[in-house]
Amino acid sequence: MASVLIFVLAGFAGAQELPDTGNLTNTGSAYAAEYRNGTSTTPLAGENETLNVSLEPVAGGFVAPLMLTDAGDGTGRLFVVDQVGTVSIIDRNGTLLEEPFLDVRDRMVTLNPSFDERGLLSIAFHPAFRENGRVFAFYSAPLRQEGPEGWDCTNRLSEFRVDPADPDQADMASERVLLEIDKPQSTHNGGSIAFGPRDGYLYVPLGDGGGAGDSGTGHTPETGNAQDLTNIYGSVLRIDVDDISAGSVPEPPENATWATGAGTLYGVPADNPFLANASIPPETYAYGFRNPAFISFDAEGNLYVADAGQDLFEEVSLVTGGGNYGWRLREGTHCFDLLSFRTPPGTCEAVGRPGESLIGPIIEGGRDLGPVIIGGRVYNGMTIPDLAGRYVFGYWNGNFVAATPPPGWNASAFPGSAENLTPEEIAMWRLQRLNVTPAESMDAFLLGFGEDEDSELYALMTGVAGPDPSTATGRVWKIVPANATAPLRT
User: What values do phi and psi take at 81, rounded to 5?
Assistant: First the structure.
């Protein structure tokens, strides 16, 4: 399948219109996706400014690989998360080990092989993993006994320890469940957990509960879950897995559809933005998301959240503490109408119900590029200098995408609180096409991105639409300079 990687060159200049002072929605930006005649399109740079890269095949034999990461322990191992419930190791020599590092298949909900958003969605190694052997996982389990009748499943955030006798095996008996979130529908699970490199806290993105329009069973009728701060859905959580006494942690409300280990298995950072309000889950760091399925951090510790859209717009936001990112009042930079998903109203509020500014995305794409965004990360490697500082991401249909920040944007100066955010700091990033020359036919579906200990990027793809265990078409590819490819290693 021919694929296109889209990004912006280092010298791609040009100013853009910024929102009115105080308006953080980015509505009207020259780089926002456009709505015309019932469809959405993406403004791209000219075809005459391109760059070629290649995809080097690394390993195959997976079902639905969603994530790749390293352990930060200097071993050079790559850990591949497969949606069906396993984490496999590719060793320093490029060999895929036969036995999985972690296996939660016997603890997971039964997946639909034709298509499913549930499963083992991510892992995150503790920043001191070399010393303490702690690794965290987010996966979909059957609905817990306390869950509301008729709901779909329960997502779990769990901690495991590495087997002291075998560094290539997690001790599956060591599981401690830190957080359980009941789900009314199977979709919109979020789940790509990550440790913040600046603060060492664990960030946990959660979807709005699932379904269309943040409405229906299990959704707050008037506002939707994502705009209801009294629940845990449609938000990014931030917790302290090292100091269980951190923060003043109120009990969840009596009718809560989630259960936490706050105060016993983890603490809450003292500077979490809503900690002082007893009606808001103390773990909440930011909110207003539909399905923040992919999060990542740049070298400066800034948080990027890729949020899957409803019917028209896909988005990536730079997220800071206390921010309201708009859903379901807005879909990206555009107004959203619960009664007419595909017809955005011409005008709508730029603030939430308490009066806080709604924060728009830095990247917005239309459905001309693909049906669902697959979030990536800012490139900080050495082998492709022209990608330095650009956010590389993609779409489920196999198109790859990346963006460059506005001239003069300072990653090290991005504020830690939404109270200090200015329109200039979230001005939209610009996109451009790049041709990809794979060593062989690429797979049909892009599922995720990853990064090794040298900050080089990888793409995870598969040939089928769902997590079907009878297939093994999933592969790991490394993004490399043009024509720098090698044979597939298995």
Answer: -90, 120
